[in-house]
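Request from the bench team (R.T.):
"We need a structural guess for the complex before ordering more zinc ion. Sequence and SMILES attached. Just send the tokens back."

Command: build protein-zinc ion structure.
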Amino acid sequence: MGAIALAISLAGCGAGSELPATVQDATSTAQLSDADGYISTGDALPLTSDKPAIAKLNPALLAALRSADRAAGAERGIAITIAEGWRSERYQDLLFERAVQKYGSEEEAPKWAKRGTDSAHVTGRAVDVATADAMDFLNRFGSRWGLCQVYANEIWHFEMLTTAGGTCPPMSPDGRG
Ligand SMILES: [Zn+2]
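Reply to R.T.: structure attached below.
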């Protein structure tokens, strides 16, 4: 994927989009805290964290991720850490408003961010993993724990979409996590 496509996809997933200062003020992440599941851009949490971004994940998803993390550590020396986990509805709404401002309309914005409870992050059923090694490990082996990449253009976004050892469904072409 090219750098431009990656940057756009990252904005869609809620990480680090660059906006003019005036726009950033209106939808500033400064009003967000740990309680919203907010993780600062560039930070990552371990799956043992007791912060809401991790602790409020769906228990089955969290258990699968912890099992995958143990295997990744034992087999590859890789730690699976989380850049985006559970998000509050207001955090997700803020991401949607940022997308409206960035892409210019409520018609265009849903291609890049979901509203409130439409996002699997808000229901605790999605994570964005933080490192390329972890993305690669889960892309190749995640289905051992039922973990699947969902969107072809979001290599970091995983949900539990099959049973352990099952087959992941085809990816959706449009990233909207
Ligand atoms: Zn995501």
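Two things stood out. The beta strands are 45-46, 81-84, 127-129, 147-149, 157-160. The first strand starts at residue 45 and ends at 46.
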